[in-house]
Amino acid sequence: MKYSIPKDVCIRLADREADYSVNAGSLECFDQGAQQQRPPLNVEVVFSIAFGRFVHLSRRQLRLSVEALAQKAEIDPSEIVSIESDPDYVPEPSAVNQLAKAFQVPPKSLMQLARLTRPKDPKMIKETIRFAAHSESIAKLTPAEREALEHFVAVLNEESE
Amino acid sequence: MTEAALFDEISEQQLALWRTTWVPVMQQSLQDFKKRQIPTDEWPEDLHWDWDLKLKDIKGLLAYRTLCLVCQDQVQGLMMLDLTKSSRLSSQAGKPLVYVEFLATAPWNRKELTTSPVFRGVGSVLIYVAIQVSLEEQFHGRIGLHSLPRANDFYQNVCGMTLVGPDPQKQNLCYFEMTRDQAKRFRP
User: Fold this and answer.
1) Whether A111 contacts chain B with CB within 8 A
2) What distance in Å separates the CA atoms of residue A79 and residue A93, rounded to the nearest whole number?
3) How far, in Å, are A92, B25, B28, B101, B176 from residue B114 at the CA level?
4) Could you tell me which of B92, B178, B88 has the C-alpha nearest to residue B131?
5) Interface contact flag, A34 B132, Cβ < 8 Å
6) Of B14, B19, B109, B96, nearest to A14 (Cα)?
7) Using a CB-CB distance cutoff of 8 angstroms, which residues of chain A are in contact with residue B137?
8) What does pLDDT average to over chain A?
9) Cβ of A88 under 8 Å from any chain B Cβ?
10) Which of A38, A56, A74, A141 could form a disulfide with A84 if both were Cys (CB 3.0 to 4.6 A apart)?
11) Residue B36 contacts by C-beta under 8 Å, 6 or more apart in sequence?
């Protein structure tokens, strides 16, 4: 149990609520989300690798060290190291939000890439696989990598529209 | 005043309680409504919600949080939060918020289903916690949700949220947002 609310607050909340209906959500008979198929496991792995590479390349493109990016995004440097190097690592939503802000890409798209939400658009899946395949990490950002990165940024921007 | 416990995850045990307590009451209500030939638009608006499916759907996704309010060994309220959404209000457009994906109170707490509800305040306590989560995520108390039609008054008048408008993407349900100032005012 994580949250505790003082008794007097509960009493005031209950008095204020009285007999109002309070439900929020959806009217659909079957929630769309429940019917969506999870992407197959290999797609999830590809997304994870693509997310790590995206952060790595974007950081290098901005000529930022891990520490400098951590400072810019106001997150812990270890979070960036884990994202870039560990395909099994699933970041906190707040860290992904901060990175989206630092890289100026839509948080919604980056959340999908980080496997925090499920990708719905087949184009996004296809482009992510393409990006993962074309963005092998090497010491210096090559023109091809830059092209791959810039193309993928455009896809991420398009995805959120 | 009765002691209540708020859990920051809906456990298997609590889900089983939902299945064995809420579902039969809702099904019985459905039979009554049918028997009395009550028009379908007067039936409970969340009659079809399946929390089993909802939880399976988000399993393993860290962007979602589930919360469960338990009192007298019964599940009194359930809520699912999505931490990936951003504000649609022009005054705070694009800023991250906690989106209340689903919020429900137990059928025995609802005036529409019983003449004497057992507990009041379940919805408000859950909204209070949604604000708390928003503060923890450094979203400054901002929350958003789609209200079911009969709950519009609650979110607008009791919670003091701003009505952004009906959302054609979501069965024209009214979409509400709470700003950081409204969140401060909500917390008594």
Assistant:
1) yes
2) 12
3) 42, 11, 12, 26, 27
4) B178
5) no
6) B109
7) 93-94
8) 80
9) no
10) A56
11) none
Q: Are the C-beta atoms of B160 and B182 separated by less than 8 Å?
A: yes
3 state DSSP class of B165: strand
Out of A17, A91, A107, whose CB is closest to B86?
Answer: A107
Task: Tell me which of A2, A19, A20, A41 to substitute to probe the interface with B (most B C-beta atoms closer than 10 Å).
Answer: A20
Q: What strands lie across the sheet with B173-178, from one edge to the other? A: B4-7, B64-71, B74-82, B98-105, B143-147, B173-178, B162-167
Asked if A17 contacts B120 with a C-beta cutoff of 8 angstroms, the reply is yes
Using alpha carbons, list the distances in angstroms from residue A31 to A18, B50, B53, B56, B170.
29, 9, 9, 12, 11
Q: What ipTM does this complex have?
A: 0.88
CA–chain centroid gap for B135, Å, is 18
Answer whether residue A1 shows pLDDT above 60.
Answer: no
CB B105 within 8 A of CB A22: yes
| A109-130 pLDDT per residue, tens | 888 888 888 776 777 887 887 7
- Rounded Cα–Cα distance for residues A12 and A9 (Å): 5
Distance CA B130, CA B51 (A): 18
**CA of A86: how far to CAs of A58, A79, A91, B37, B174, in Å?**
17, 10, 10, 59, 41
| Nearest 10 degrees: Cα torsion A148, A151, A153, A159 | -130
Q: Please check whether residue A112 is in contact with residue A96, taking contact to mean a CB–CB distance below 8 angstroms.
A: no
